[in-house]
Design a protein that fits this description.
heterodimer, A: about 750 residues, Aldehyde Oxidoreductase, domain 4, 7-stranded mixed sheet, 5-stranded mixed sheet, 21 helices, 26 strands, globular, B: about 160 residues, alpha+beta, Ubiquitin-like (UB roll), 2 domains, 5 strands, about 35% helix
């Protein structure tokens, strides 16, 4: 474990708020996103999708479509025949159905044509002979023995007998004696809570431009969170070596986890290969909802025991998640995260993954955690209400801290939960008066944070300015934070550093932009690349001065002689060393490659005030304050931005957003009108308090901040609504009809 | 399908194009005129990413036909900066970090400019309701609203 990286220091650049380098392009319309790429001779790709939630594909007749003037290629599942195994096979089958359509919206064929109009016409000419099969879209129905089997062959050994084949995996975590713990409790509450599937809701639909050459080499431009992973998946699916495919990430118009995998990219590549021309494929919003990854829906049983003075004696949960027609491990993350905020002597969580006839789930910001922690934080609050205890005091009393054995196994190092709780307790928001029909809720939140494989190359250009080449698409301002860390380390102004995101052929492998890993891991690699460059700069200065390399140090962008025998020389600034570099050994650069560990978990606490209209059941958010540990905020504006954006996604999840399936198994609301994400007029200011408890695993103490913010709002809003109406809801979203019903039933 | 010849003014420049009768103004701007600042987020007028003004009125260009541009004055995000000089809204969005992924930003800037032309001194609530048709999924709107209010104050100061 790399837990000794942190070194306390005073910062020059870190913590300031410079204008982000990609900002100017984004406010002027110059920034190029997935759908903005063009190539000469480019064709338009379109996908035909199943109207049935479950069907066997008896045959597909594409002859009439292929014969249409302007159609250059048609592909079906038969073109993806020889796909190996494991997740790549699942990704391929999700991108194009093999022999079964597994959900409403599952791709069954695609065309490439000279225009959008011709492509649409061609889709109408494709005849698919479906044998419609029984379907199941809800968790309980899918788990029942005798349920229609969604997708056979995925059941792992961990699943006990007696379940439907739709239950594919069981995960268990915990420690201690539950029975003894519950016996010591003065009050035990057990509840079942449900959350609906929600979509990441990025505003930019998935889009790509593929160009496969006749020699089996290809290029792909796409909006993605991880172009190296796109390359790996697509190369495997296309049966080519990874180096034959170069993937370039465009600007990305939001991802939130949803763009960590591929949907249309392999289809575009296959169409391009068959057509012998570049193919652009852009999803419509309807396709994004029906066929790209929403997150899971959940049903969670929680049982918690508490003493009269607020100590939790035992806690257990069973989590059942469905994430569509393919297996996934989101429920494992849920089972790990559920009780992470608490220091518990006896705890157990069990998670089951369930297949349904819904689209293949994709990661969504802290995948699996928001629903698990919603369930736990709801029951903790209910216990506080029953026992007449202050919910914040109870959380402080039970909070995980340094040395706590976490509910999922590891023992925590320096963590910021207590500090965030204390900040919330001390904040005026916690004591502000409330009016009629108003309520206040709070919730803790948690995310693991990841590190992962990272390459960074840093070059000192001939004029002493600096280029940082990194390989992680910038979804939250990371080019700014990476450039700031390089500037800090080199002691030069932020404006003299430019960070760019390289294509897959231009830099070593980088894992996906996920797990809140980029500012942590790419930052760490950037700092180390800068240190390597500094060492080289010092060496070159030593040569210029004719002294020992060891007698040179780096300070404020300059080499300086240091030590008893160094002699007396004027400091040499980076630009002078760079200009002389052809005569001292050639270009100066630094690079660093690492599989970063020590990411450092992240905790947050949210406070939320609501007012519920007793006549309409409508909930208005009145006030919202976020407390989150950032380790060290590199660019505080974008730390706040992550916290605010995550919170508002969570507010949408709590109040409005849900995938609604009809009895026919079709998605009823595949558009922004009926799947309503929060709009500006729904919200107040979202206030933020950044705590900085340094992460020992990063030289500057950074923790990822991207994901934790979406976790607390579900329970914070729900607890506030319960407080306002005097009765509790156990299901999200808390849409007005559900709240009205709860008020009427008391 | 035969195409229609359209003469229009875009960002102050006389522009001609041919388009099919069923093509949207958004498709014309993006695919025929290569003005890709306006984005298609939904194609149904729900997200506001394709906002432009048509004869001074804020519209979702995905709900306007290209042929409706005949004789009209259209402005897009590409027309907001004058020469190298950013519009105060653009500058405030940069200074106050009012964007993350940036894909909704062009539409929000165009919509906010249309608001400030009608109402130079909007309340926070007026800004929030005016921009309710422009979805942003990254920011939670907080910094966007603050940037619009700050730009409005700047513009009033300059007037």
């Amino acid at each position: 474990m790399a837990l000794d990286e942190y070194e306390k220091r005073d910062f020059q650049v870190i913590g300031s708020r410079p204008v982000r380098p990609d900002g100017i392009d984004k406010v002027t319309g110059r920034a190029l996103y997935g759908a903005d790429a063009v190539l000469p001779g480019m064709l338009v790709g379109k996908v035909l999708r199943s109207p049935h939630p479950h069907a066997r594909i008896r045959s597909i007749d594409t002859r009439a479509a292929a014969a249409l003037n302007g159609v250059r290629a048609v592909v079906t599942g038969a073109d993806f025949g020889e796909i190996r195994k494991g997740e790549t096979r699942n990704v391929a089958e999700n991108a194009m159905a093999f022999d079964h359509a597994l959900y409403d919206g599952h791709a069954v064929a695609a065309v490439a044509a000279t225009s959008e109009a011709v492509a649409r016409e061609a889709l109408k000419l494709i005849e698919v002979d479906y044998e419609v099969l029984p379907h199941v879209t809800e968790i309980a129905a899918a788990m029942a023995p005798g349920a229609p089997v969604v997708h056979a062959g995925f059941v792992e050994d961990s699943v006990p007998d007696g379940f439907s084949e739709n239950v594919t995996a069981r995960h268990e975590f915990g420690h201690g004696d539950l029975e003894a713990g519950f016996a010591r409790a003065d009050k035990v509450i057990a509840r079942t809570l449900k959350t609906a599937a929600t979509h990441q809701g990025y505003i930019e639909p998935n889009a790509c431009l593929a160009s496969m050459g006749p020699d089996g080499r290809g290029d792909l431009w796409c909006c993605t969170q991880g172009h190296y992973f796109v390359r790996q998946l697509c190369a495997e699916i296309m049966g080519i070596e990874e180096s034959r495919l170069r993937v370039t990430a465009s600007e990305i118009g939001g991802g939130f986890g949803g763009k960590t995998t591929v949907f249309v990219e392999p289809v575009a590549l296959m169409l391009s290969k068959k057509a012998g021309a570049p193919v652009k494929l852009v999803m419509s919003r309807n396709e994004v909802f029906r066929a790209s990854g929403p997150t899971v829906s959940s049903e969670i049983d929680v049982k918690i025991g508490m003493t009269r003075d607020g100590r939790i004696t035992a806690a257990e949960a069973e989590l059942r998640y469905q994430g569509g027609a393919f297996p996934n491990i989101t429920v494992m993350f849920g089972a790990m995260a559920a009780f992470a905020a608490y220091d518990l002597g006896a705890v157990r969580t069990v998670g089951y993954n369930v297949l349904t006839n819904r689209p293949k789930q994709a990661a969504y910001r802290a995948p699996g955690a928001p629903m698990a922690i919603y369930a736990v934080e709801s029951v903790v609050n209910e216990l506080c209400e029953e026992l007449g205890l202050d919910p914040l005091e109870v959380r402080l009393k039970n909070a995980a801290r340094k040395g706590t054995k976490s509910s999922y196994g590891p023992t925590f190092n320096d963590i910021g939960l207590v500090a965030t709780l204390e900040a919330a307790q001390a904040h005026p928001h916690y004591r502000a008066p409330l009016g009629p029909n108003q309520g206040r809720g709070l919730s803790c939140g948690f995310w693991f944070n990841f590190g992962g494989n990272t390459s960074v190359s840093l070059s000192v250009d001939m004029d002493g300015s600096v280029s940082v080449t990194e390989g992680n698409p910038d979804i939250g301002g990371s080019r700014a934070s990476i450039a700031m860390m390089a500037a800090e380390e080199l002691g030069i102004p932020f404006e003299r550093v430019r960070a760019i995101v390289a294509d897959t052929a231009s830099l070593g492998h980088n894992d996906v932009t996920d797990g809140s890993r980029v500012t942590f891991a790419v930052g760490l690699a950037t700092i180390k690349a800068a240190r390597a460059a500094k060492k080289e700069l010092c060496k070159r200065a030593a040569m210029m001065w004719g002294i020992d390399e060891e007698a040179v140090t780096w300070e404020n962008g300059c080499a300086k002689p240091s030590g008893p025998n160094a002699g007396s020389f004027e400091p040499l600034p980076i630009e002078k060393i760079a200009r002389k570099s052809p005569r001292t050994g050639g270009p100066i650069a630094g690079h660093h490659e690492v599989n970063a560990e020590g990411a450092g978990v992240s905790f947050g606490v949210h406070l939320c005030d609501v007012e519920v209209d007793p006549e309409t059941g409508h909930t208005k958010i009145l006030r919202y304050t976020i407390f989150q540990d950032a380790g060290k905020a590199i660019h505080p504006d974008y730390v706040e931005g992550q916290m605010q954006g995550g919170a508002v996604q969570g507010i949408g999840w709590a109040l409005n957003e849900e995938y609604i399936y009809g009895k026919d198994g079709r998605l009823q609301n595949p558009g922004f009108l009926d799947y309503r994400i929060p709009v500006a007029s729904d919200l107040p200011d979202i206030d933020t308090v950044i705590l900085e408890i340094p992460n020992p695993g990063h030289p500057y103490g950074v923790r990822g901040v991207g994901e934790t913010g979406i976790v607390p709002p579900l329970a914070a809003v729900s607890n506030a609504v319960s407080h306002a109406i005097g009765t509790r809801l156990y299901e999200l979203p808390m849409s007005p009809p559900k709240i009205l019903k709860a008020i009427r039933e008391g | 399908m035969s195409k229609t010849h359209v003469t229009t003014t875009i960002n102050g420049t006389r522009t001609e194009f041919l388009c099919e009768a069923n093509e949207t103004l958004l498709t014309v701007l993006r695919d025929r005129l290569h003005l890709t600042g306006a984005k298609e987020g939904c194609g149904s007028g729900d997200c506001g990413a394709c906002s432009v003004t048509l004869n001074g009125r804020l519209v979702a260009s995905c709900l306007v036909l290209g042929v409706e541009a005949e004789g009209a004055e259209i402005t897009t995000v590409e027309g907001m900066a004058e020469g190298g000089e950013l519009h105060p809204l653009q500058q405030k969005f940069l200074d106050l970090a009012a964007l993350q992924c940036g894909v909704c930003t062009p539409g929000i800037l165009v919509a906010a400019k249309a608001l400030l032309e009608k109402n130079p001194d909007p309340s926070e609530q007026e800004v929030r309701y005016w921009l309710a048709g422009n979805l942003c999924r990254c920011t939670g709107y907080d910094k966007i609203i603050k940037a619009v209010l700050a730009a409005a104050a700047d513009l009033r100061g300059a007037a």
